[in-house]
Amino acid sequence: MTSHSAASSPRLAVIGGGPAGLMAAEVARAAGLEVDVYEAKGSVGRKFLIAGKGGLNLTHSEPLPAFIQRFRERSSEVGAWLRDFDADAAREWARGLGVETFVGSSGRVFPSDLKAAPLLRGWVRRLRESGVRFHVHHRWSGWHGEQLRFDTPAGETSLRADAVVLALGGGSWPQLGSDGTWQALLAESGVDVAPLQPANCGFDVGWSEHLAARHAGAPLKPVVAHWRDADGREHALQGECVISADGIEGSLIYALSAELRQAIARNGHATLQLDLAPGRSLERLQQELSKPRGHRSVSEHLRRHAGISGIKAALIHEILDKTQLDNPVLLARTIHRLPLTLKRARPLAEAISSAGGVRLEAMNDRLMLNALPGVFCAGEMLDWEAPTGGYLLTACLASGHRAGEGAVAWLKASMPA
């Protein structure tokens, strides 16, 4: 990065107009830096708006220690960010923008009107009024010497900055701007980058044409998922999911996506078992299904004695053949633990978020790249992941807060006396 004179305020370039970038810009501008935000698309916060389309899940009310554990292998590093900017700080920040929040029945926190647009509009307005300058249709294309290069509708342009915050997103929803093309640019500069992978994603099963044609989009609820981790320990989680044309997706599956993706990497596939009748023991199912069926169909027998119908019945028919359906013990076991073999995760472009990215070991605790002094990174482009439920957005905001503070501290330390 370039040096600056004592007569002028240091200039920070924030590249990427998502929540992490905007938070970094806010922190830096409040500290007196000149701040320019560069966005590849025609407006900022596009993924933020789409994520809030069904109701913006801002954060989660879970106590901080449990909240931090949601970040799995990266709980220590992300936990440090969250201790500076946690769920309560996110709610207070929203309140400062005139947006009140409430805690839903699941513990998730939403704006009182459930909308993302008013929050984003108020945020951008406040940033502009504070002096932050926005430059849209500026796609970062790397460096030319010490200058930042951008592709714009008017052609390539270069500029200097005293420090940079990169907040370029992961690789999910590339149509909204986070297409992961920055990976090669940073790798060429000696930055250690883990390959991007789908997170909070669906998985392929390979249904029969009959099931896919008749039941794609059908909700599967409630069910309990059972699986084993890499050490062979058993786990269970109740929730809801959706049958897709290719496999299975939805909130329950997203919550397990890291475990399932890692199992596929280890074994070539992941095994998931679903309890289709939560609350009914295997013994009860066997007793009920052993009652004479008479002239009733298997489907009617399942409905009467196990409460199984619709997509749940279709899944049983997908797994068992006609002879097996007449075996009440096998039928009960299948309802209690319906086995699914997951072949692969759905493509990254379809995922809600991504895993992988700039390894946290490639930067210091203020999120400055070891290989590129004065260059900070924030948001989903970093190598961490979390389930949906407000955890993702809160950590993006927290990382932007930390990167912004890091840039301020670095610039102040490097200013001429």
Structure characterization notes:
With 417 residues, the protein is of the alpha+beta class. The chain has helices at residues 19-30, 46-51, 64-69, 75-84, 87-96, 117-130, 182-188, 209-215, 251-267, 282-289, 298-306, 310-319, 322-325, 328-336, 391-414; strands at 11-15, 34-38, 59-60, 101-103, 108-111, 133-135, 139-144, 147-152, 155-159, 163-166, 193-199, 203-204, 219-228, 234-243, 247-249, 270-275, 338-342, 344-345, 353-358, 375-377. It has 15 helices and 20 strands. A seven-stranded antiparallel beta sheet has the order 17-16-13-14-15-12-18. The protein has a five-stranded parallel beta sheet with strand order 6-2-1-10-20, covered by helices on one side. A three-stranded antiparallel beta sheet has the order 3-5-4. Strand 14 (234-243) and strand 15 form a beta hairpin. Helix 1 (19-30) packs parallel to helix 6 (117-130), helix 4 (75-84) packs across helix 15 and helix 10 runs antiparallel to helix 14 (328-336).
Class per helix and strand makeup? alpha+beta
Radius of gyration: 25 Å
State which percent range the strand residues make up.
15-25%
Assembly annotation? single chain
Poorly predicted sequence stretches spanning 5 or more consecutive residues? 1-7
Q: Order of strands side by side in the largest beta sheet?
A: 17-16-13-14-15-12-18
What's the shape?
elongated
Biggest sheet layout: 7 strands, antiparallel
Span of the ends, CA to CA: 18 Å
Task: Please tally the helical runs, counting DSSP H or I stretches of 4 or more residues.
Answer: 15
Overall pLDDT: 95
Q: Can you give the helix content as a percent range?
A: 25-40%
The beta-strand count equals: 20
